[in-house]
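Slide 14.
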Amino acid sequence: MENRNISQLALERIKEEGIKPISRNIFSIKRVLFWVLVAISFIIGALTFSLILSALFNNDWDLYNKFGFSFIFRTLPYFWLISLAVFTILGEYYYRKTYLGHRRGFILIMGVYLISTTVFGSLFYLIGTGRFIEQSLENEAPIYRHIMLNRYEVWSHPEAGFLSGKIIRVMGEEIEVIDSNGFIWIINMQDVYLRGRVEIETGERIKIIGRCLETICIADEIRPWIGMRKMMR
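Slide 15: predicted structure.
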């Protein structure tokens, strides 16, 4: 049996199986595509981190004493935490597909990715991007309220003095608010304490602490739904 080198064997197999080489153009497109996917995963991850910060910084931690330790578990942004984990894994996976992927270890890639996501996500939060996205989701995607059910659930107990909703009418010392269930309340603000940067105007979503009975609520305190400064219009 005559000796044949590896190249000859490879050529014979290619001919037998009809294997066609990938063109340089397709190979280049795939390389660019994976870098694009890495960038998309990183950007979405950073935006998700800004939403996590927005949720945590506006979580009304002072209510811990009223609801107990379960308040933490009821209001953590689980959806965004899971989303961040998913896009972190995707970012690492797509980076592995690039020509640089095999040159870096898993721990190094994940470390750099998480640090970068934290830095850029914090910047997005500081400029109000997280608040803007959250407001848009609440206004344009009703299903988002079901995703963030825990936060709405905490502020949907008028019998206990906790109510939230959107202002639909301003009438001097009274306002009309529609809650997440579509129920309309008349809020008396005669002796109310306005907390944070809350704005009493039509279309604003607010949180109310007070004494509620049937359709009327005497407000002791009104808070903004999201405490970050108002976005520039």
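Speaker note: The first strand starts at residue 156 and ends at 157.
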